[in-house]
């Protein structure tokens, strides 16, 4: 739907196109993000920004990092803003009743990696343990 009308309103309504998403119809659900759009498609629709999610710590995180790093590099070449949802996903991050997915040291590492691959804006869960910083 957006693609059919985006050019008509792009100069008045700036928008972001999210490039990937978790396909949730498969069972069991995996912590993987699949690319559904390209930076060029977003640019041609008139988007001012692209966004993506990386599940750091997941089995597919290295591939996700490589894909999104390349996409963000291309977006910057086109003058676009980049936004990364930087989430942790690994069953080993839960131990003895403590969920380390929201610990300050691990979320801080995800933020560092997000900045390293070129994210202009990083969305992260607020740390709830391990210093809450």
From TrEMBL:
Q: Which residues cross the membrane?
A: none
Which keywords does this chain's UniProt record carry?
Lyase, Schiff base
**What EC numbers are recorded for this enzyme?**
4.1.2.13
Q: Which domain of life is it from?
A: Bacteria
Entries under Pfam families matching the protein = DeoC
Give the first-level EC class, as a single word: lyase
Q: What is this protein called?
A: fructose-bisphosphate aldolase
Source species: Escherichia coli
> What would be the name of the gene that encodes this protein?
fbaB_2
């Amino acid at each position: 739907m957006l693609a059919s009308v985006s050019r008509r309103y792009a100069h008045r309504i700036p928008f972001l196109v999210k490039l990937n998403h978790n396909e949730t119809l498969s069972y069991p659900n995996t912590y993987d993000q699949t690319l559904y759009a390209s930076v060029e498609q977003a640019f041609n629709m008139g988007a001012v920004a692209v966004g993506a999610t990386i599940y750091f710590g997941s089995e597919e995180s290295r591939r996700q990092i490589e894909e999104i790093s390349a996409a963000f590099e291309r977006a910057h070449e086109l003058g676009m803003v980049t936004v990364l949802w930087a989430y942790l996903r690994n069953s080993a991050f839960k131990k003895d009743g403590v969920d380390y997915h929201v610990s300050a040291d691990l979320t801080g590492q995800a933020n560092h990696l997000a900045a390293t691959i070129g994210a202009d804006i990083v969305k992260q869960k607020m740390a709830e343990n391990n210093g809450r910083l």
